[in-house]
Amino acid sequence: MTDETDQDAFTKLDRFFEELRLEMRANPELAVRLVKAIGAEVSFEGTLAVKLVNPRELAITSDEAGFRAAFAAMTLADIKTVLKAHNLASAVDMKGLQAPELIDMAYRRAVAKAAERNV
Amino acid sequence: MNTDGNRLIMSANIVAIANLKGGVGKSTTTVMLADSLAYHFGLNVLVVDLDAQANSSQMLLTEQGVHAASEQGKGTHHLLGQFLEGRKAMAGPFIMPNAVSIEELRAAEMKSERLGWISALPAHPQLRMDELALEEEWYSRTGTPTTLSEALARHFQNAFSDLLPLYDLILLDCPPHLSPLSRAGLAVADVFVIPTLADAVSSWGTKQFMSWVGENVRADLVNRSFSVITRFKNTNYARQTRSELQNVYLKDIWFGPTIPESVQVLTAMDRPAADSYDTFRGKYGKMRGDVRVLAEEFVKFVHARKWNESFTKVRT
Question: I want to staple B29 with a disulfide (CB 3.0 to 4.6 A). Which of A86, B195, B291, B292 is the partner?
Protein backbone atom coordinates (compact mmCIF):
# COMPACT_ATOMS: atom_id res chain seq x y z
CA MET A 1 0.00 0.00 0.00
CA THR A 2 2.81 2.39 0.97
CA ASP A 3 4.68 1.61 -2.25
CA GLU A 4 1.61 2.28 -4.28
CA THR A 5 1.13 5.67 -2.56
CA ASP A 6 4.77 6.62 -3.18
CA GLN A 7 4.41 5.57 -6.79
CA ASP A 8 1.32 7.70 -7.07
CA ALA A 9 3.14 10.72 -5.54
CA PHE A 10 6.12 10.36 -7.88
CA THR A 11 3.80 10.11 -10.85
CA LYS A 12 2.04 13.27 -9.80
CA LEU A 13 5.37 15.07 -9.23
CA ASP A 14 6.59 13.94 -12.65
CA ARG A 15 3.43 15.34 -14.15
CA PHE A 16 3.88 18.60 -12.22
CA PHE A 17 7.48 19.07 -13.39
CA GLU A 18 6.54 18.13 -16.92
CA GLU A 19 3.89 20.87 -16.93
CA LEU A 20 6.43 23.29 -15.47
CA ARG A 21 9.00 22.32 -18.09
CA LEU A 22 6.51 22.79 -20.90
CA GLU A 23 5.41 26.16 -19.54
CA MET A 24 9.02 27.30 -19.16
CA ARG A 25 9.76 26.32 -22.74
CA ALA A 26 6.74 28.24 -23.96
CA ASN A 27 7.31 31.18 -21.65
CA PRO A 28 11.00 32.13 -21.49
CA GLU A 29 10.32 35.10 -19.21
CA LEU A 30 8.96 32.73 -16.58
CA ALA A 31 11.91 30.40 -17.13
CA VAL A 32 14.35 33.22 -16.50
CA ARG A 33 12.55 34.34 -13.35
CA LEU A 34 12.49 30.80 -11.98
CA VAL A 35 16.13 30.11 -12.81
CA LYS A 36 17.17 33.42 -11.23
CA ALA A 37 15.08 32.59 -8.17
CA ILE A 38 17.23 29.55 -7.50
CA GLY A 39 20.35 31.70 -7.79
CA ALA A 40 21.61 30.47 -11.14
CA GLU A 41 23.18 32.75 -13.74
CA VAL A 42 21.29 33.20 -16.98
CA SER A 43 22.76 33.93 -20.37
CA PHE A 44 20.84 34.59 -23.55
CA GLU A 45 21.24 33.90 -27.21
CA GLY A 46 19.55 34.98 -30.41
CA THR A 47 16.07 36.46 -30.39
CA LEU A 48 15.61 35.43 -26.76
CA ALA A 49 18.44 37.78 -25.79
CA VAL A 50 16.67 40.74 -27.40
CA LYS A 51 13.56 39.95 -25.42
CA LEU A 52 15.08 39.14 -22.06
CA VAL A 53 18.44 40.83 -21.58
CA ASN A 54 18.47 43.68 -19.05
CA PRO A 55 21.57 45.76 -19.79
CA ARG A 56 21.69 47.40 -16.34
CA GLU A 57 21.50 44.03 -14.61
CA LEU A 58 24.04 42.61 -17.03
CA ALA A 59 26.41 45.51 -16.28
CA ILE A 60 26.42 44.46 -12.62
CA THR A 61 26.39 40.67 -12.95
CA SER A 62 28.80 40.34 -15.87
CA ASP A 63 32.19 41.73 -16.84
CA GLU A 64 32.61 44.00 -19.87
CA ALA A 65 33.50 41.10 -22.17
CA GLY A 66 30.36 39.23 -21.14
CA PHE A 67 28.28 42.33 -21.63
CA ARG A 68 29.66 42.90 -25.12
CA ALA A 69 29.26 39.22 -26.02
CA ALA A 70 25.56 39.40 -25.19
CA PHE A 71 25.14 42.21 -27.73
CA ALA A 72 27.63 41.04 -30.34
CA ALA A 73 25.29 38.44 -31.82
CA MET A 74 22.42 40.92 -32.20
CA THR A 75 21.54 42.78 -35.36
CA LEU A 76 21.73 46.57 -35.46
CA ALA A 77 17.94 46.76 -35.21
CA ASP A 78 17.90 44.43 -32.20
CA ILE A 79 20.54 46.48 -30.37
CA LYS A 80 18.46 49.59 -30.95
CA THR A 81 15.36 47.78 -29.71
CA VAL A 82 17.10 46.77 -26.48
CA LEU A 83 18.51 50.25 -25.86
CA LYS A 84 15.13 51.87 -26.44
CA ALA A 85 13.22 49.31 -24.38
CA HIS A 86 15.52 49.88 -21.41
CA ASN A 87 15.58 53.66 -21.79
CA LEU A 88 19.31 53.78 -22.38
CA ALA A 89 19.10 55.80 -25.59
CA SER A 90 16.58 57.80 -27.59
CA ALA A 91 16.09 57.54 -31.33
CA VAL A 92 17.96 60.85 -31.58
CA ASP A 93 20.94 59.42 -29.67
CA MET A 94 21.12 56.35 -31.92
CA LYS A 95 20.67 58.06 -35.26
CA GLY A 96 23.51 57.16 -37.67
CA LEU A 97 25.40 54.96 -35.20
CA GLN A 98 26.62 51.49 -36.14
CA ALA A 99 26.58 48.38 -33.94
CA PRO A 100 30.05 48.83 -32.33
CA GLU A 101 29.25 52.44 -31.42
CA LEU A 102 25.87 51.43 -30.05
CA ILE A 103 27.41 48.65 -27.95
CA ASP A 104 29.93 51.16 -26.57
CA MET A 105 27.05 53.48 -25.70
CA ALA A 106 25.05 50.62 -24.20
CA TYR A 107 27.92 49.55 -21.96
CA ARG A 108 28.81 53.09 -20.85
CA ARG A 109 25.24 54.04 -20.05
CA ALA A 110 24.23 50.72 -18.50
CA VAL A 111 27.21 50.88 -16.13
CA ALA A 112 26.38 54.48 -15.21
CA LYS A 113 22.68 53.76 -14.67
CA ALA A 114 23.39 50.65 -12.64
CA ALA A 115 25.81 52.66 -10.49
CA GLU A 116 23.10 55.28 -9.91
CA ARG A 117 20.68 52.67 -8.65
CA ASN A 118 22.95 50.18 -6.92
CA VAL A 119 23.02 50.63 -3.14
CA MET B 1 11.50 94.17 -5.53
CA ASN B 2 9.75 95.71 -2.53
CA THR B 3 8.60 94.86 0.95
CA ASP B 4 5.21 94.68 2.56
CA GLY B 5 5.83 94.90 6.29
CA ASN B 6 8.08 91.97 7.15
CA ARG B 7 6.96 90.00 4.13
CA LEU B 8 9.23 89.85 1.15
CA ILE B 9 7.76 90.46 -2.26
CA MET B 10 9.54 90.01 -5.54
CA SER B 11 8.04 91.48 -8.64
CA ALA B 12 9.44 88.88 -10.99
CA ASN B 13 8.32 85.53 -12.21
CA ILE B 14 9.32 83.22 -9.38
CA VAL B 15 7.22 80.11 -9.02
CA ALA B 16 7.39 77.72 -6.05
CA ILE B 17 6.36 74.15 -6.76
CA ALA B 18 5.41 73.04 -3.28
CA ASN B 19 3.35 70.83 -1.02
CA LEU B 20 4.05 69.75 2.54
CA LYS B 21 3.41 66.15 1.57
CA GLY B 22 6.09 64.17 -0.20
CA GLY B 23 5.50 61.92 -3.19
CA VAL B 24 2.84 64.08 -4.84
CA GLY B 25 4.86 64.81 -7.99
CA LYS B 26 6.55 68.12 -7.20
CA SER B 27 9.78 67.33 -9.05
CA THR B 28 8.01 65.68 -11.98
CA THR B 29 5.66 68.66 -12.31
CA THR B 30 8.65 71.03 -12.13
CA VAL B 31 10.43 69.25 -14.98
CA MET B 32 7.29 68.87 -17.11
CA LEU B 33 6.55 72.58 -16.71
CA ALA B 34 10.14 73.55 -17.52
CA ASP B 35 10.22 71.33 -20.64
CA SER B 36 6.82 72.37 -21.91
CA LEU B 37 7.20 76.11 -21.23
CA ALA B 38 10.61 76.11 -22.92
CA TYR B 39 9.43 74.00 -25.85
CA HIS B 40 5.94 75.37 -26.51
CA PHE B 41 6.38 78.98 -25.41
CA GLY B 42 10.09 79.47 -26.04
CA LEU B 43 10.69 80.58 -22.45
CA ASN B 44 14.07 80.81 -20.79
CA VAL B 45 13.54 78.81 -17.60
CA LEU B 46 15.76 78.38 -14.54
CA VAL B 47 15.00 75.41 -12.30
CA VAL B 48 16.22 75.91 -8.72
CA ASP B 49 16.22 72.68 -6.71
CA LEU B 50 15.87 73.37 -2.98
CA ASP B 51 15.22 69.73 -2.10
CA ALA B 52 18.23 67.75 -0.86
CA GLN B 53 16.75 64.64 -2.46
CA ALA B 54 17.78 66.36 -5.70
CA ASN B 55 15.11 64.62 -7.75
CA SER B 56 14.43 67.37 -10.28
CA SER B 57 18.21 67.85 -10.64
CA GLN B 58 18.62 64.13 -11.37
CA MET B 59 15.76 64.24 -13.84
CA LEU B 60 17.35 67.15 -15.69
CA LEU B 61 21.04 66.30 -15.40
CA THR B 62 21.18 62.60 -14.35
CA GLU B 63 22.78 61.59 -11.06
CA GLN B 64 26.25 61.65 -12.58
CA GLY B 65 25.49 65.13 -13.85
CA VAL B 66 24.46 66.23 -10.36
CA HIS B 67 27.78 65.06 -8.91
CA ALA B 68 29.71 66.58 -11.81
CA ALA B 69 27.90 69.88 -11.24
CA SER B 70 28.83 69.84 -7.57
CA GLU B 71 32.46 69.15 -8.43
CA GLN B 72 32.36 72.17 -10.73
CA GLY B 73 31.18 74.34 -7.84
CA LYS B 74 27.54 74.40 -8.97
CA GLY B 75 24.48 73.81 -6.80
CA THR B 76 22.20 75.23 -4.12
CA HIS B 77 24.46 73.97 -1.31
CA HIS B 78 27.04 76.50 -2.49
CA LEU B 79 24.39 79.21 -2.17
CA LEU B 80 23.85 78.06 1.39
CA GLY B 81 27.61 78.05 2.05
CA GLN B 82 27.76 81.62 0.77
CA PHE B 83 25.08 82.59 3.29
CA LEU B 84 26.81 80.73 6.12
CA GLU B 85 30.09 82.51 5.43
CA GLY B 86 28.41 85.92 5.16
CA ARG B 87 29.51 86.44 1.56
CA LYS B 88 27.65 88.59 -0.96
CA ALA B 89 24.57 86.85 -2.32
CA MET B 90 25.08 85.71 -5.92
CA ALA B 91 23.41 82.71 -7.55
CA GLY B 92 24.85 83.08 -11.05
CA PRO B 93 28.15 81.25 -10.45
CA PHE B 94 26.31 78.17 -9.13
CA ILE B 95 24.06 77.64 -12.16
CA MET B 96 24.47 74.88 -14.73
CA PRO B 97 23.68 76.82 -17.90
CA ASN B 98 22.54 73.77 -19.87
CA ALA B 99 19.90 71.46 -18.41
CA VAL B 100 18.15 70.86 -21.72
CA SER B 101 17.22 67.33 -22.86
CA ILE B 102 14.82 68.29 -25.65
CA GLU B 103 16.42 67.88 -29.08
CA GLU B 104 14.52 70.74 -30.72
CA LEU B 105 15.86 73.20 -28.12
CA ARG B 106 19.41 71.90 -28.50
CA ALA B 107 19.22 71.98 -32.30
CA ALA B 108 17.99 75.58 -32.31
CA GLU B 109 20.81 76.55 -29.94
CA MET B 110 23.37 74.91 -32.22
CA LYS B 111 22.12 77.15 -35.03
CA SER B 112 22.28 80.18 -32.71
CA GLU B 113 18.50 80.38 -32.91
CA ARG B 114 17.71 79.83 -29.24
CA LEU B 115 13.98 79.56 -28.74
CA GLY B 116 13.38 78.22 -25.27
CA TRP B 117 16.06 77.04 -22.84
CA ILE B 118 16.45 75.41 -19.44
CA SER B 119 19.21 76.05 -16.93
CA ALA B 120 19.48 74.55 -13.46
CA LEU B 121 20.66 75.55 -10.03
CA PRO B 122 20.82 71.93 -8.96
CA ALA B 123 20.61 70.37 -5.53
CA HIS B 124 23.07 67.85 -4.18
CA PRO B 125 22.53 65.47 -1.23
CA GLN B 126 25.17 67.55 0.57
CA LEU B 127 22.52 70.27 0.80
CA ARG B 128 20.80 68.58 3.74
CA MET B 129 24.05 68.29 5.71
CA ASP B 130 24.86 71.93 5.00
CA GLU B 131 21.39 72.96 6.06
CA LEU B 132 21.75 71.04 9.31
CA ALA B 133 25.15 72.66 9.96
CA LEU B 134 23.59 76.05 9.29
CA GLU B 135 20.73 75.35 11.70
CA GLU B 136 23.13 74.29 14.46
CA GLU B 137 25.23 77.39 13.93
CA TRP B 138 22.24 79.72 13.81
CA TYR B 139 20.43 78.28 16.81
CA SER B 140 23.63 78.30 18.90
CA ARG B 141 23.54 82.08 18.47
CA THR B 142 20.00 82.22 19.92
CA GLY B 143 18.45 82.50 16.48
CA THR B 144 15.11 80.83 15.80
CA PRO B 145 13.77 78.85 12.85
CA THR B 146 11.73 81.86 11.83
CA THR B 147 14.63 84.35 11.92
CA LEU B 148 16.77 81.86 10.00
CA SER B 149 14.20 81.36 7.26
CA GLU B 150 13.68 85.14 7.01
CA ALA B 151 17.43 85.76 6.73
CA LEU B 152 17.72 83.00 4.12
CA ALA B 153 14.81 84.49 2.17
CA ARG B 154 16.61 87.84 2.07
CA HIS B 155 19.75 86.05 0.85
CA PHE B 156 17.76 84.29 -1.90
CA GLN B 157 16.05 87.53 -2.83
CA ASN B 158 19.39 89.25 -3.28
CA ALA B 159 20.91 86.24 -5.03
CA PHE B 160 18.04 85.93 -7.50
CA SER B 161 17.67 89.66 -8.17
CA ASP B 162 20.59 89.63 -10.64
CA LEU B 163 18.98 86.69 -12.46
CA LEU B 164 15.59 88.23 -13.01
CA PRO B 165 16.45 89.97 -16.30
CA LEU B 166 18.02 86.77 -17.62
CA TYR B 167 15.11 84.38 -17.24
CA ASP B 168 11.42 84.41 -18.07
CA LEU B 169 10.61 82.08 -15.19
CA ILE B 170 12.42 80.78 -12.14
CA LEU B 171 10.90 77.53 -10.88
CA LEU B 172 11.72 76.62 -7.27
CA ASP B 173 11.32 72.91 -6.53
CA CYS B 174 10.66 73.03 -2.77
CA PRO B 175 11.20 70.16 -0.32
CA PRO B 176 8.17 68.51 1.27
CA HIS B 177 8.54 69.91 4.77
CA LEU B 178 8.97 73.25 6.50
CA SER B 179 12.73 73.42 6.75
CA PRO B 180 14.40 76.87 6.70
CA LEU B 181 15.25 76.36 3.02
CA SER B 182 11.70 75.47 2.17
CA ARG B 183 10.28 78.43 4.07
CA ALA B 184 12.75 80.77 2.38
CA GLY B 185 11.77 79.42 -1.03
CA LEU B 186 8.08 79.90 -0.29
CA ALA B 187 8.73 83.45 0.95
CA VAL B 188 10.36 84.64 -2.28
CA ALA B 189 7.84 83.05 -4.63
CA ASP B 190 5.26 85.05 -6.49
CA VAL B 191 2.95 82.16 -7.26
CA PHE B 192 2.62 78.56 -6.17
CA VAL B 193 2.13 75.39 -8.13
CA ILE B 194 0.66 72.77 -5.80
CA PRO B 195 0.80 69.22 -7.11
CA THR B 196 -1.40 66.76 -5.27
CA LEU B 197 -2.83 63.28 -5.63
CA ALA B 198 -6.47 62.31 -5.66
CA ASP B 199 -6.46 60.50 -2.33
CA ALA B 200 -7.36 61.34 1.26
CA VAL B 201 -3.86 61.72 2.73
CA SER B 202 -2.78 63.99 -0.10
CA SER B 203 -5.90 66.10 0.42
CA TRP B 204 -4.95 66.45 4.10
CA GLY B 205 -1.40 67.45 3.15
CA THR B 206 -2.67 70.02 0.67
CA LYS B 207 -5.11 71.40 3.24
CA GLN B 208 -2.26 71.78 5.77
CA PHE B 209 -0.11 73.47 3.11
CA MET B 210 -2.86 75.95 2.22
CA SER B 211 -3.52 76.65 5.87
CA TRP B 212 0.11 77.12 6.96
CA VAL B 213 1.36 79.04 3.93
CA GLY B 214 -1.82 81.12 3.84
CA GLU B 215 -1.32 82.19 7.46
CA ASN B 216 2.45 82.57 7.48
CA VAL B 217 3.62 83.39 3.98
CA ARG B 218 0.87 84.61 1.67
CA ALA B 219 -2.46 85.87 2.90
CA ASP B 220 -3.64 85.85 -0.73
CA LEU B 221 -2.35 82.35 -1.38
CA VAL B 222 -5.60 81.19 -2.96
CA ASN B 223 -5.29 83.77 -5.73
CA ARG B 224 -1.69 82.83 -6.34
CA SER B 225 -2.11 79.05 -6.47
CA PHE B 226 -2.30 76.67 -9.39
CA SER B 227 -2.99 73.07 -8.46
CA VAL B 228 -2.27 69.98 -10.52
CA ILE B 229 -3.59 66.52 -9.73
CA THR B 230 -0.86 64.10 -10.70
CA ARG B 231 -0.53 60.34 -11.17
CA PHE B 232 -4.29 60.05 -11.55
CA LYS B 233 -5.72 56.54 -11.63
CA ASN B 234 -9.13 56.63 -13.24
CA THR B 235 -11.14 54.87 -10.53
CA ASN B 236 -14.42 55.83 -8.87
CA TYR B 237 -12.55 56.69 -5.67
CA ALA B 238 -10.06 58.92 -7.46
CA ARG B 239 -12.80 60.65 -9.47
CA GLN B 240 -14.79 61.35 -6.30
CA THR B 241 -11.74 62.70 -4.46
CA ARG B 242 -10.77 64.88 -7.41
CA SER B 243 -14.29 66.23 -7.68
CA GLU B 244 -14.31 67.12 -3.96
CA LEU B 245 -10.92 68.83 -4.25
CA GLN B 246 -11.91 70.86 -7.30
CA ASN B 247 -15.48 71.68 -6.40
CA VAL B 248 -15.47 71.94 -2.62
CA TYR B 249 -12.22 72.08 -0.66
CA LEU B 250 -10.07 73.99 -3.17
CA LYS B 251 -12.85 75.47 -5.27
CA ASP B 252 -11.23 78.92 -5.43
CA ILE B 253 -7.92 77.61 -6.73
CA TRP B 254 -7.05 77.43 -10.41
CA PHE B 255 -6.72 73.79 -11.43
CA GLY B 256 -4.47 72.73 -14.25
CA PRO B 257 -4.97 69.49 -16.15
CA THR B 258 -5.16 66.16 -14.38
CA ILE B 259 -2.01 64.22 -15.22
CA PRO B 260 -2.72 60.48 -15.55
CA GLU B 261 -0.58 57.79 -13.97
CA SER B 262 1.82 56.85 -16.74
CA VAL B 263 4.87 54.72 -17.31
CA GLN B 264 5.77 57.18 -20.08
CA VAL B 265 6.19 59.96 -17.51
CA LEU B 266 8.42 57.74 -15.36
CA THR B 267 10.54 57.00 -18.42
CA ALA B 268 10.63 60.67 -19.42
CA MET B 269 12.02 61.56 -16.00
CA ASP B 270 14.83 58.99 -16.28
CA ARG B 271 17.24 60.69 -18.67
CA PRO B 272 19.46 58.00 -20.22
CA ALA B 273 22.64 60.07 -19.89
CA ALA B 274 23.74 63.66 -19.55
CA ASP B 275 24.54 63.70 -23.29
CA SER B 276 21.20 62.17 -24.26
CA TYR B 277 18.60 64.21 -26.15
CA ASP B 278 15.14 63.34 -27.40
CA THR B 279 12.45 65.14 -29.32
CA PHE B 280 9.55 66.46 -27.23
CA ARG B 281 7.35 63.87 -28.92
CA GLY B 282 9.85 61.09 -28.21
CA LYS B 283 10.37 62.08 -24.59
CA TYR B 284 6.71 62.37 -23.63
CA GLY B 285 5.09 60.02 -26.16
CA LYS B 286 1.34 59.71 -25.60
CA MET B 287 1.62 62.07 -22.62
CA ARG B 288 2.82 64.97 -24.74
CA GLY B 289 -0.69 66.41 -25.05
CA ASP B 290 -1.10 66.42 -21.25
CA VAL B 291 2.28 68.10 -20.80
CA ARG B 292 1.41 70.70 -23.45
CA VAL B 293 -1.91 71.47 -21.75
CA LEU B 294 -0.11 71.79 -18.41
CA ALA B 295 1.97 74.65 -19.84
CA GLU B 296 -0.99 76.20 -21.66
CA GLU B 297 -3.12 76.26 -18.51
CA PHE B 298 -0.24 77.60 -16.44
CA VAL B 299 0.31 80.42 -18.91
CA LYS B 300 -3.41 81.28 -18.76
CA PHE B 301 -3.22 81.28 -14.96
CA VAL B 302 -0.17 83.53 -14.94
CA HIS B 303 -1.76 85.90 -17.38
CA ALA B 304 -5.02 86.09 -15.47
CA ARG B 305 -3.78 86.14 -11.92
CA LYS B 306 -0.46 87.79 -11.67
CA TRP B 307 1.74 89.32 -14.22
CA ASN B 308 -0.61 90.63 -16.81
CA GLU B 309 1.90 89.09 -19.15
CA SER B 310 1.08 86.91 -22.07
CA PHE B 311 3.49 84.30 -23.36
CA THR B 312 3.10 83.37 -27.00
CA LYS B 313 3.30 79.89 -28.41
CA VAL B 314 6.31 79.22 -30.61
CA ARG B 315 5.80 75.49 -31.25
CA THR B 316 2.74 73.29 -31.45
Answer: B195
pLDDT in tens, B28-54: 999 999 999 999 999 999 999 999 999
Picking from A92, A112, A113, the nearest residue to B279 by CB comes out as: A92
CB of A89 within 8 Å of any CB in chain B? Answer: yes
The verdict on a CB contact (< 8 Å) between B64 and A112 is: yes
The answer to whether residue B1 is domain-embedded is no
Are residues A101 and A51 located together in one domain of the fold? yes
Strand residues in chain B grouped as ranges (E): 2-4, 7-9, 14-17, 44-49, 117-121, 169-173, 191-196, 225-229, 254-255
Contact B277 A93 (CB under 8 A): yes
Check if A59 contacts B (Cβ < 8 Å): no
Give φ, ψ of B230 to 5 degrees.
-110, 165
Q: A112 and A58: one domain?
A: yes
Task: Tell me whether residue B7 is in a domain.
Answer: no
How far is residue A69 CA from its own chain's centroid?
13
Find the domain containing A60 and state its range: 44-119
- B2 is a domain residue: no
**Percent of chain B at pLDDT exceeding 90:** 75
Answer whether residue B262 is part of any domain. yes
> In this prediction, does ipTM exceed 0.85?
no
Structural domain span for residue B291:
12-305
Task: Give kind and range of the element (H or E) at residue A75.
Answer: none
Question: Mean pLDDT score of chain B, rounded to an integer?
Answer: 91
